[in-house]
Design brief:
- By secondary structure, the protein is α/β, with parallel strands linked by helices.
- It has a single domain, classed as TIM Barrel (Alpha-Beta Barrel).
- Helices cover 38% and strands 18% of the residues.
- The protein has 15 helices and 17 strands.
- An 8-stranded parallel barrel has the order 2-3-4-5-6-10-13-14, surrounded by 5 helices. The protein has a 3-stranded mixed β-sheet with strand order 7-11-12, with helices on one face. A two-stranded antiparallel ribbon has the order 1-17.
- Strand 15 and strand 16 form a beta hairpin.
- Helix 3 packs parallel to helix 5, helix 6 packs parallel to helix 8 and helix 11 runs parallel beside helix 12.
- The longest helix is centred in the middle third of the chain and has 25 residues.
- The radius of gyration is 21 Å and the shape is globular.
- The N and C termini lie close together (7 Å).
- The model has no long low-confidence stretch (mean pLDDT 97).
- The structure holds 5-hydroxymethyl-3,4-dihydroxypiperidine.
- The site of 5-hydroxymethyl-3,4-dihydroxypiperidine has 9 residues, from loops.
Length: 443
């Protein structure tokens, strides 16, 4: 049986990613809390993983003991700025303690400044629908970065702006986000304002902290033509890719492409010090007369592909490699961080092979000397999964929300071995997911 190890470069960051509303609990002053109370989600974040009550300590201990050397978390705007004219210094002090806690445990902190939630008061200013939000967000960013910069120099301004705009302003199904509107034109306006907010923050952060590294966590979900021979499938795939993936290009040339036309945002050009890459799955597109509302294009997971719980994600590890290739070609020489990758698998039956095969695809990319500097698994502990509530379990550690008990999944041990080895060995694959052995170590 072949033996070996796929090693990563020295200094590679191995961490997990979380977001404030998904783990802190009792974020009562934001639009998601209200959305949950209005009955749009499967349950509520409630006390979540109780990080605000202090349980971040035990979870950071777990991460450190498991060999992780980095952690990506987000701060909650509505806690730091409970009203437009007030700052909560105690909340900032709590975040300082968390970041200090990471450093004391040998974990490099990465802080996301906006991860889907908005303070309730932002609604009075039109949320992200008007440009008025840009200086408001920048003001929050300045205050927060100034308070936290002693402990952090790796910043993600906004998580998945495309997800925010499309889920909140186009999607009407079970996975919709607040405000639950269905207006493509408005979605594009919102997206443009998120990019403007990012660009303004990028500059503000660099003024406060010249050594900062600032970027966005882009959601990359490749769309492939189902029939490669079909011009219609290829055309529709291009349209879907424009809608889902091409926004990242705005940071290359200052032009935001959308299916409704382009919007110039020149101030966004060149405003990222790394490319934040969130990858989960890949979809296929085909022409289908029954789908008039999406230009007669239907998008779906391939037949026979392995699906995660409830069919939420399809296991498409080579999409990770293809996506990284796209990033390298589009942004040559820009460092890349895989800011999220993971799967919902409550009984952990799928997670070990999902993790190993995706990290292996990342290794293929690293092996070409593409500048990939780190990987953040989603997630450390089960999180409140937005519309799906607690139905989808992404944690290396499971969580009993009522008792707050953490339950270690086998994947936590697997990931610990990967972090400590700085690579994937044949022994690990044999131990945790022998069914993937032949894929990674063909005889
Ligand atoms: O939980 C989410 C996260 O908030 C954003 N990226 C995708 C994750 C899994 O769905």
């Amino acid at each position: 049986m072949p033996q070996g190890t796929y090693h990563f470069p020295k200094g590679f960051l191995w961490g997990t990613a979380t977001a404030a509303h998904q783990v802190e609990g009792n974020n009562t002053n934001n639009n998601w809390w209200k959305w949950e109370r209005d009955g749009h989600t499967d349950g509520s974040a409630a006390v979540a993983a109780d990080w605000w009550g202090g349980r971040w300590r035990e979870d950071f201990d777990r991460a450190a003991e498991a060999g992780q050397n980095a952690h990506r978390l987000s701060v909650e705007w509505s806690r730091i700025q409970p009203t437009p004219d007030t700052w909560d210094e105690e909340a900032l002090e709590k975040y300082r303690a968390m970041l200090r806690g990471l450093k004391e445990r040998g974990l490099t902190p990465m802080v996301t400044l906006h991860h889907f939630t908005d303070p309730l008061w932002l609604g009075n200013y039109g949320s992200w629908e008007t440009e008025a939000v840009v200086p408001l967000f920048e003001k929050f960013v300045r205050k927060t970065v100034d308070a936290l910069k002693e402990y952090c120099s790796l910043w993600c301004t906004i998580n998945e702006p495309t997800g925010y705009a499309l889920n909140g302003y186009v999607t009407t199904g079970v996975d919709s986000f607040p405000p639950g509107k269905n207006n493509m034109k408005l979605a594009m306006q919102v997206h443009a304002n998120l990019i403007r907010g990012h660009a303004a923050s990028y500059r503000a952060i660099h003024l406060l902290q010249p050594e900062a590294r600032v970027g966005i966590a882009h959601q990359y979900r490749p769309m492939m033509p189902y029939h490669t021979w079909s011009p219609l499938d290829r055309l529709l795939t291009n349209a879907f890719n424009t809608t889902v993936n091409s926004f990242a290009l705005t940071l290359a040339d200052g032009v935001m492409r959308s299916p409704l036309g382009s919007i110039k945002i020149p101030e966004a050009k060149g405003t990222q010090d790394y490319f934040g890459f969130n990858y989960y799955t890949r979809e296929y597109v085909t022409f289908d007369l029954r789908h008039a509302s999406t230009l007669f294009g239907r998008h779906f997971y391939r037949k026979d592909v392995e699906l995660s719980d409830d069919g939420f994600l399809a296991m498409e590890p080579d999409g990770m490699y293809e996506g990284l290739k796209w990033v390298v070609r589009t942004f040559p020489n820009l460092p890349i961080l895989v800011t999220e990758n993971g799967v919902n698998s409550a009984d952990d039956s799928m997670r070990p092979r999902y993790t190993v095969q995706h990290i292996h695809q990342m290794w293929r990319a690293v092996n070409f000397n593409w500048p990939i500097k780190g990987y953040f698994h989603w997630s450390l502990v089960d999180n409140f999964e937005w519309s799906f509530g607690w139905k989808y379990r992404f944690g290396l550690w499971g969580l009993d929300v009522d008792t707050q008990k953490r339950i270690k999944r086998p994947s936590a041990d697997l990931y610990a071995e990967i972090c400590k080895e700085n690579g994937i060995s044949s022994e690990m694959v044999q131990k945790y997911c022998p069914e993937s052995f032949e894929k990674l170590f063909p005889s």
